[in-house]
Specification:
Elements (H helix, E strand, L loop, with lengths): L1 E7 L3 E2 L3 E3 L22 E3 L28 E3 L14 H18 L10 H14 L3 H13 L7 E3 L1 H11 L2 E6 L2 E6 L2 E7 L4 H4 L7 E5 L2 E2 L12 E7 L6 E6 L1 E6 L3 E5 L3 E5 L8 H15 L4 E5 L5 E3 H8 L5 E8 L2 E7 L12 E5 L6 H12 L3 E4 L8 E6 L5 E11 L14 E3 L12 H10 L2
Helix pairs in contact: 1-2, 2-3, 6-7, 7-8
Length: about 450
């Protein structure tokens, strides 16, 4: 059964650590003028704070599963229970394998399968899946087969992981741990969200704090989750400060993935959106912007899409609706083109308002589309570095065993024919500094945006 449309990355790594990603006219309105507050092809340089000296255990030779850099994760479990051997019959295995292969053969975006010999792939993997000693090995083989497409979007999701995807979509997280959503970086886990009334909040942790070690082990070899009432020792680095140890008692917590919004000096609204995967994220953003517009007359908006991996098309359209309307581009597939038409939203006060969009190399999929559409149709100035260039739309197909197949099925082009795949959104103002190493008040991207909006 085919279900939904999604643009974004959703990878499974380290057991049940889940990456939050990953990806429906009229003539569009005139773009808002950039005159007097924008710059083009400008490079902004800021001195990056020196990283503190951190003494950590030497990682073992056990390889860490590959994953895209700077993608949000919620640690939601400690282990994956292996299924009993041969729980699926050979007939059922062959049916699932055949269905996965057929769906890709019929619906994959590229009729040449990106240079992959798809007929030969079937011949290669059919004996492998039939000889798999356990269901876990069977699912792993299908996962490897789909990964051969190499598009960073298409993927096979086993039943247990598919249930986790459904939970993430709700935007609610329940965990026995410290109550945080983190962003994996090369040297630690940067805290993005802290749940209310959580052990993390009560211990004084803040967004942008970086967890570099867990129970004396390098962060990638530790676990924030654990039994209710157990303790975990974290080595934490706050931007501009040295590493410190914090002892936290784990407990069951629940929280939501939410956007952030605040008024900055000069009547500037800041809105941070870390994912479009949460199904009501557009409604949450609308509610925050409505409050801000009612509280003060605005002179500009900063929309922060850094490390946003994309999400649902309805969320994309809902947020865009406050800034643009009409046909803004079209989705392409093997059957033809489908225009993306944005219906006007409720916040007319934001139309034509000076707009800055912050992006980085991990801004991906529908977050990239949002930035590009705002750049071309709302006169937004893009600040940061080129985005990831991973903009295919994926469709989900529910299989009989509860597993799920995501297929890259559509590309996207702006009205002028610009295709972002493999290229990304190009910034108007380049800011190279690693924003994750700065306190928010010193963030070079935000400071650059404020200078552009308050010349």
């Amino acid at each position: 059964m085919k279900k939904g449309r999604l643009g974004g990355l959703l990878w499974l790594v380290l057991g049940l650590v889940i990456i939050l990603s990953g990806c429906s006219g009229a003539v569009p309105p005139m773009a808002a003028s950039r005159q007097g507050w924008a710059a083009t092809a400008t490079v902004i340089t800021t001195r990056e704070p020196a990283a503190p000296t951190i003494v950590l255990p030497t990682p073992t030779d056990v390889p860490v599963p590959s994953r895209p850099p700077e993608q949000s994760v919620a640690v939601v479990g400690t282990a994956v229970a292996e299924l009993a051997p041969t729980a699926l019959s050979q007939v059922t295995r062959l049916e699932i394998f055949t269905e996965v292969w057929r769906l890709i053969h019929e619906y994959y975006l590229y009729d040449d399968f990106g240079g992959v010999e798809w007929l030969m792939i079937r011949d290669e993997f059919e004996p492998v899946i039939l000889a798999a000693p356990t269901d876990a090995a069977f699912y792993e083989a299908i996962t490897r087969m789909v990964a051969r497409l190499g598009d960073n979007h298409s993927r096979f999701v086993p039943p247990q992981a598919a249930r986790r995807e459904d939970a993430i979509t709700s935007g609610r997280e329940e965990q026995v741990g410290i109550g945080v959503i983190v962003l994996p970086l090369g040297d630690g886990l940067m805290i993005q969200h802290i749940f209310p009334d959580s052990p993390a909040l009560q211990s004084g942790l803040r967004p942008r704090d970086r967890i570099v070690a867990i129970d004396g082990a390098f962060f990638s070899h530790g676990d924030l989750e654990g039994p209710d009432g157990s303790q975990v020792r974290l080595a934490v680095v706050r931007p501009g400060e040295e590493s410190r140890d914090i002892l936290i008692t784990r407990r069951r917590v629940e929280g939501a993935i939410t956007p952030t919004a605040r008024l900055l000096p000069g009547g500037i609204a800041y809105v941070g959106i870390t994912t479009l995967w949460v199904s009501n994220m557009d409604q949450q953003v609308t509610a925050l912007l409505t409050e801000i517009v009612a509280a003060q007359e605005l002179r500009g908006v900063i929309l922060d899409l850094r490390s946003n991996p994309g999400g649902w098309r309805t969320v994309l359209a809902g947020i865009l609706s406050h800034f643009v309307s009409g046909e803004v581009g079209y989705f392409t597939n093997r059957q033809g083109d489908v225009p993306l038409v944005i219906e006007p939203g409720s916040l007319d006060a934001l139309r034509g308002m000076p707009l800055i969009v912050l992006v980085d190399r991990s801004t991906a999929s529908y977050a990239e589309l949002m930035a590009a559409i705002l750049q071309s149709h709302a006169g937004a100035v893009i600040v940061g570095v080129p985005t990831s260039g991973n903009t295919e739309t994926i469709y989900s197909y529910e299989l009989s065993d509860g597993s799920r197949l995501w297929i890259a099925q559509e590309g996207f082009e702006l009205l002028d024919g610009t295709d972002l795949e493999g290229v990304g959104v190009q910034p108007d103002v380049i800011v190279n500094e690693d924003w994750t190493r700065f306190r928010e008040e010193d963030d070079p991207g935000i400071l650059t945006a404020l200078r552009l909006l308050n010349p």
